[in-house]
Amino acid sequence: MLHKETIEIIKSTVPVLEIHGTEITSVFYTRLFDNHPELLNIFNHANQRQGRQQTALANAVYAAAAHIDRLEEIVPVVKQIGEKHRALGILPEHYPIVGTTLLAAMKEVLGDAATPEILNAWADAYQVIADAFISVEAEMYEKAARVPGGWSGFRRFVINRKVKESPLITSLYLVPEDGGEIASYEPGQYITLRVKPEGDSYSHLRHYSLSTAPGKPYYRITVKREDGVNGEGAGVVSTWLHRQAEEGTVVEVSAPAGSFTLNSDSELPLVLISGGVGLTPLVSMLETALTKQPSRPVVYIHAAKCGSQHAMRDHIEQLTVQHPQLRSYVIYESPEQEDQCHKTGYIDLELLQETTDPGSDFYFCGPVPFMRAVYSHLKAMGVPADRAHYEFFGPAGTIEQ
């Protein structure tokens, strides 16, 4: 338990964190990798360059400070971050390194304003927060290892098959090299791949949503090749999976994780809304709902740039024909001459009002601007926040602008 005086000091720093949070976390990551370059084998380098990781950490620090006297309110966030930490292999011994570096970054950015009193209070608070993460993650590690087919750490999988879904999107079917059983998962969860492309100094870890319903003898991920602009900002792992990895290539995989999962106990109508490669977790949810809840009405809405970039189009059309409880809609931003779609442009409020019941459970995933627009439309329809479920690919962002 934190002393009352410590809590008061932490809460007094909230306005400062709002202003300087991202600057502090930027200094933090620079110091962290300068002093512990081995951690570059864990962190996503692209997210560092784009500033997404710094912003996500700043938001997490701010939330912890604002709720320091009622940390139980951020347990869902702790669990969500804990899922990613377990998938990445974050261990208890990493937390003291992070704590020491974070305090040093605060001191560097805030200067004399970071008094010994403030830094001591933050040291105490950080230990309480770290203990909460370590406890939650220990349970996650244990659970991942003890379920049938489960394992701890990383396990070697073979790319059994590669299927081109569009010019930029490919599905990969992964089977365990040891031939053993694989853990099941909740529709919407992801696995984490660890690869080290030839000539690269560090390993790279990436989360990829499982893109089919559980219960199969393989894991399927569906990956968009991120080419960047003129080669800059290209996705190291996605381009490697598309261009270098072949059928028979071995990759390391951590057990399924993630808190963006379908609530199969709900009897409300289900609406799934995806943009681009954001369809991956939603296809898993769709297949599961159609099989396990055959009487549950389902609406699936997908937005893509055009037909040639629309992955799994034939699969969704086939499911729509086979399952009378499913209605599906396609929106193309810039349809090509031969394309057929229900709407040109973007998913808007009018379309959602025409095709969905605001009393439904909504799940959506896609690029950040897409998700912000969908969330705004759902709010305008009166959909409660607890029935609007979404997931950011990469570090958590802010759904409202």
From TrEMBL:
Cofactor binding note of this UniProt entry: Binds 1 heme b (iron(II)-protoporphyrin IX) group per subunit. Binds 1 FAD per subunit.
- Which positions does UniProt annotate for NADP(+) binding? G276, V277, G278, L279, T280, P281
Which residue stretches belong to region Reductase? 149-401
Q: Where is this site: Involved in heme-bound ligand stabilization and O-O bond activation?
A: Y29
Q: Where does FAD bind?
A: Y190, F392, F393, G394, P395
Q: Where is the active site?
A: Y95, E137
Per its Swiss-Prot or TrEMBL entry, what cofactor is needed? heme b; FAD
Which InterPro entries does the record cross-reference, listed alphabetically?
A: FAD-bd_FR_type (IPR017927), Flavoprot_Pyr_Nucl_cyt_Rdtase (IPR001709), FNR_nucleotide-bd (IPR039261), Globin (IPR000971), Globin-like_sf (IPR009050), Globin/Proto (IPR012292), Hmp (IPR023950), OxRdtase_FAD/NAD-bd (IPR001433)
Q: Which Pfam families match?
A: Globin, NAD_binding_1
Q: A single GO molecular function, which one?
A: nitric oxide dioxygenase NAD(P)H activity
* SUPFAM superfamilies referenced in this protein's UniProt entry, alphabetically: Ferredoxin reductase-like, C-terminal NADP-linked domain (SSF52343), Globin-like (SSF46458), Riboflavin synthase domain-like (SSF63380)
For the FAD-binding FR-type domain, which residue ranges apply? 152-263
- The feature of type site (Influences the redox potential of the prosthetic heme and FAD groups) is located at K84, E391
UniProt keyword list:
Detoxification, FAD, Flavoprotein, Heme, Iron, Metal-binding, NAD, NADP, Oxidoreductase, Oxygen transport, Transport
- Enzyme class, top EC level, equals oxidoreductase
What job does this protein perform?
Is involved in NO detoxification in an aerobic process, termed nitric oxide dioxygenase (NOD) reaction that utilizes O(2) and NAD(P)H to convert NO to nitrate, which protects the bacterium from various noxious nitrogen compounds. Therefore, plays a central role in the inducible response to nitrosative stress.
Which HAMAP family does this one have? Answer: Hmp (MF_01252)
Copy the domain comment. Consists of two distinct domains; an N-terminal heme-containing oxygen-binding domain and a C-terminal reductase domain with binding sites for FAD and NAD(P)H.
The name this protein goes by in its record: Flavohemoprotein
